[in-house]
Amino acid sequence: MRVFSGTVAASLLLALATGIRPSAAAPAPAAAAEDAPSWSLIIARTPPAAQTTGFKPYLHPAKLTQLLSDSLLAAASTTPASCQAPAKVLYAGQYAVSPPVLMSKNEPASEVALWWSAHESTSSSCAITLQESSPSTQIPLQIDSILPSITSPHKHLVFVAQEALDPSLLDERSNASWASPMLLQHVAAQTLDVIDAQGSRREVERWTWEQQMRALLGGSSFKRESTDLDTPSVALHSSANDNTQAIFAADKTGEKVARVTDIHTLHEHVQLLHLNKYWALLQMDDAALLSHELFLPTDSRISLIPSPEQASLSATADGPAGNSSEPSYPQPVFSSLISSILASNQISTKRLQKDARVLTAEDANPGWVTRHSATAGGRQAAEWVLSQMQASLEWVAGAECHLHEYDPIFAPNVVCTIKSDPEAVAAEKKRLVAVKGEEEAEGLVLVSAHYDSRGTFGYIEAPGGDDDGSGTTLVLGLARVIGEYRLRFARDVHIVAHSGEEQGLIGSKHYARLLREKKEAVRLALQADMVAFHQPGEPPQLAFPNRLATDSATKYVQSLAQLYTPELVTGYCTACCSDHQSYWEEGFPATWLFERNGAIADPAYHQSYDLTNRTGYDFDQLRGATQVALATILETAHFYL
Questions:
Q1: What is the Cα–Cα distance from 299 to 294, expressed in whole angstroms?
Q2: How far apart are CA 240 and CA 369, in angstroms?
Q3: In contact, 45 and 95? CB cutoff 8 Å
Q4: Are 637 and 491 in contact (CB under 8 A)?
Q5: Hey, what domains does the chain have and what are their CATH numbers?
Q6: Which GO molecular function entries does the Swiss-Prot or TrEMBL record give (predicted)?
Q7: Which of 79, 307, 364, 540 has the lowest tally of Cβ within 10 angstroms?
C-alpha cells in the first residue's frame, strides 16, 4: 500500500484541479456508416451583456430549434465566408446556470444553448441572434465549442450544473456536505495520519465546484499506477439487513449494474467533454448515471440531453408537441362545491402524514430503506403506490392503474388514468352553450410527482420525506378524494408517480414522449415536487417556476391557489428542474408546485435525514398544496358528481 502525506495528496489534487484540459477525456469519434448522418454538438451561451435578459421567457426545444435554424441561415447569407448554414439543426435546448455565488451577489445567471448540427457545418465565428417577433426580442448567442461525433449508443450525454441553493443553506450545512463525496474519501484514504487526513479534506472542501470537477474527471490522475496502491471505494452503511437495497436492477443483458464506487476506475464510466465555471458536459454509462450522487459534488443537478437518434424520433413524431403558442385558460371563479370537496378528510393533515411516514419508513417497515430508482426498494415502493391508488380508484368509472415499464434498469412509473365520462362531456358542452363560453382546447389533465429518492453519501437510507415523498403523498391524496366522491370528468385525467427523476427526469421523459407518440393532447401537466418544507419563521407558502414552464399555465394554477388556499403565500422559485420540464419540452403546457419562494432551503435536501418529523416540515402546507392540485383537476378537467 502506497501512503502519501495528507498535504502532498491534496496538493497533487489541487494541481490537477487547476490546469487540466476539459476535453482531454473526450472519446474518439466513432466510425459511422456511409449513409448515416454525422452530428456535432454545438455549445453556445449568452454573452455577459445579454445575461440581464437572457432566455426569459424560455423557449421549448421545437421553437428554439426553428429560431436557431433561421438565425444560422441569416448569418450564412450575410457572412458566407465565415459562417456556413448547417444542412439540419436537431434539438436545441436551453440550460440555465444559477449557482449560489451568483445569486448572493445579485449577478445575472448565465444561460447555455445546446444543439445538434450537421458535422462541421457550423463555425464558431457565426454571429447568431435569436429574433422573436412576439414579443419583439433579440437574444445574441456566442458559440463556445463544437464537439464532433461524440454520440455513443451505450452512453448518456449529461448536462451538469451547480444547483441554485439559498445562501442560508450554505451556511447551515458544512462545506463537506456539498463537496464530492468520492473526492473527500479518496483524499482521506491517502494517509494513515488522522490529522493530515482532516487537513486534506478541509483543503478539498474549499475548492470551487469547477476545481472538484477537474480533479475528478479532467484527466488520468486516479488510474492505478501499481498493484500496491490503495483502492478506496465508497462504504455503504445501513441499519437494514436487506443488502439488495444496494444492488441495482438487471440491465438489458440480464446482468447486474454495479455502483461506481472506485475513484480509480471512474474514468472508465464518465468522460468530461466540456467544463465551465458552474457547469459541465459529461458522457456517462448506465452505472455512472445511476450512482452520480457518489462522485459529483453534492450541490449538482443533472439534465439528460437527447441523442440525435432520440431527437430525430421526437422531431418526426406526429403529435401536438411543437406548438409554441401560450394556451389560454379561463379566469377561475370561486365555487362553494369545489371548496367543500377540498375540505375532505381524505387529505387531512393526519391522513397525509400516514402516507408520508410509510414512504419514509418512520412509522412502519414497508420493506424498503431507499426508493432509489434502480434498487429493489424503488420497485417495492412503486408496487405499494400502485396498490394504494388502485384501492382508491376501484369504484371510479373509467379508472385504470398500471406500472409503466420503460427501462429494465429503472423502477417503473406508476400511472392511473381516468377516462372522460360521455355524460360529463355532453354536460360540459351544454354548459358552454348556455353561458356562451368559448370552447376550450382539447387535452387531458395530468398531475404528477416522483417517488424515487436520494440520500447522504455512504448511507443506503434515502427516506426522501420532502423530496419527493411530499409530492407522492399529494398524488395519493388526490386519488383518494376522486374515489371518495366517485368523480366523473369531461377530460381524461392522469395521475402519475414518476421514477428516475433524480437521474435526470428519465421516467417523465419516457412518459411525455409516449403521450406524444400516441398523439395525445395535453391541456395541462402539473408536477408536485418538494411541497412540505419552509424555514422556521416563514409562513406556509407555495412557489411556481419562473422558467422552463408554460407561463399561462403557471398563472392559472397560481390564481387557483390564491382563490382556494389564501393562507399560502404564493410566489416564484429559482430552483430547477423537475418532471414538468419533460412535458414542457415536448410542447405540452406544464408547470410546477414547489414549497418555497426563492431557492432551495431545506437542510435535508438529498440527505438521509430527509424525514417528516423535523423542524420546518409542515403538513398544513402540504395539505394546502394538495388542495391546489385537486382544485386544478376539478376546474380544468370539469368534474361532475
A1: 12
A2: 7
A3: no
A4: yes
A5: 6-20+160-305 (no CATH), 39-149 (no CATH), 319-640 (3.40.630.10)
A6: metal ion binding; metalloexopeptidase activity
A7: 364
